[in-house]
């Protein structure tokens, strides 16, 4: 029902950035190689995501807007081996219950266009046939004034969108991303690069020259990424990004482990910039913690944390052996 969707929208669609996250994750799940995000007025007026992914079959388009209609899990045990980013089937119904949504999609042959207003289908027709999906969300939260009131300033909401897109781009250097806000380009990645190239696109080459690679591996866990030298810090932990099995996640113990790797080299209240990719057996990860799936639990947390801290200590020790150029 529309009401149930609005209730779950409260959890899934907290702010414009959550919409961007859900739409881009859908594009990633659909094997896109290019994802272009356009924003107007911090996402309240418009959020547009264009991808070149698999598309949705005409017969499945309406199903995609039904609650818990996910094409990504077929058996309950799949929940414990989640590999795709989305799996709850809540995003499209939730978003469409609190906005106007136009979705245009094609699997390569004939395409389909649907339009939802406040959770109701108002139009469906055949559409152009380029393979991929375009979703346009407009008038976000037009029917939930309480949600609108709770939002932060337009600049803060925009920076949250920018943050999310940056992190998704970092987790997927093989996909070319762009983010344009009110005609201003905030990010463009090549899709041919490694993590370092994406970091350069986000922070600039000068900043990235102060970031160093780290690496650690056991038979069942691998850790790699880039972390800043102690001279390059920020006043918040937010610049520490964790990518677990291709998914950007939040995990306090592992964030702490990154900071601990620096020991006393960080000034009080200062934090490094870090992007760390962690690969473990999906059976060790519990992603089913919260609807937005960012906070995860990992059964090997202490072990992974130890590897992280140690890899950073090693990198810092090696730096001291290299004479200044
Ligand atoms: P979930 O991602 O949890 O499955 P969503 O509500 O986000 O649920 O999406 C519902 C379904 O719509 C997905 O399972 C997928 O089949 C389809 N879908 C949504 N967005 C796209 C897209 N950009 N490309 C291809 N399929 C999509
Ligand atoms: Mg999804």
TrEMBL record:
Domain DNA mismatch repair protein S5 as annotated: residue spans: 199-317
Known function: This protein is involved in the repair of mismatches in DNA. It is required for dam-dependent methyl-directed DNA mismatch repair. May act as a 'molecular matchmaker', a protein that promotes the formation of a stable complex between two or more DNA-binding proteins in an ATP-dependent manner without itself being part of a final effector complex.
Family stated for the protein in its record: Belongs to the DNA mismatch repair MutL/HexB family.
Protein known as: DNA mismatch repair protein MutL
Organism per entry: Lentilactobacillus raoultii
Classification of source organism: Bacteria, Bacillati, Bacillota, Bacilli, Lactobacillales
Gene field: mutL
Range covered out of full length: 9 to 333 of 653
């Amino acid at each position: 029902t529309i009401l149930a969707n609005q209730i779950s929208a409260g959890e899934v669609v907290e702010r414009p950035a959550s919409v961007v996250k859900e739409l881009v994750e859908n594009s990633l799940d659909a094997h896109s190689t290019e994802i272009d995000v356009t924003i107007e007025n911090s996402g309240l007026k418009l959020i547009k995501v264009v991808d070149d992914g698999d598309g949705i079959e005409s017969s499945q388009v309406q199903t995609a807007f039904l609650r818990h209609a996910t094409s990504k899990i077929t058996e309950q045990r799949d929940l414990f081996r989640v590999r795709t980013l989305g799996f709850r089937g809540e995003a499209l119904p939730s978003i469409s219950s609190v906005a106007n949504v136009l979705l245009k999609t094609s699997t390569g042959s004939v395409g389909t266009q649907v339009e939802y207003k406040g959770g109701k289908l108002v139009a469906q027709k055949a559409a152009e046939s380029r393979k991929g999906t375009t979703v346009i969300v407009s008038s976000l939260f037009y029917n939930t004034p309480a949600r609108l009131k709770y939002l932060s300033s337009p600049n803060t909401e925009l920076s949250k969108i920018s943050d999310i897109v940056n992190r998704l781009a970092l987790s997927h250097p093989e996909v070319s991303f762009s983010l344009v806000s009110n005609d201003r380009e905030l990010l463009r990645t090549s899709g041919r690069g490694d993590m370092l190239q994406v970091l350069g696109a986000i922070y600039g080459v000068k900043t990235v020259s102060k970031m160093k690679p780290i690496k650690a591996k056991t038979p069942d866990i691998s850790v790699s990424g880039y972390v800043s030298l102690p001279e390059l810090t920020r006043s918040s932990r937010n610049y520490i990004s964790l990518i677990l099995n291709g998914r950007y996640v939040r995990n306090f113990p592992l964030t702490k482990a990154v900071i601990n790797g620096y020991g006393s080299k960080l000034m009080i209240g200062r934090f490094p910039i870090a992007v760390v990719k962690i690969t473990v057996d999906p059976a060790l990860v519990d992603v089913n913690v919260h609807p937005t799936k960012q906070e995860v639990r990992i059964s090997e947390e202490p072990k992974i944390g130890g590897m992280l801290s140690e890899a950073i200590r090693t990198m810092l020790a090696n730096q001291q052996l290299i004479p200044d150029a």
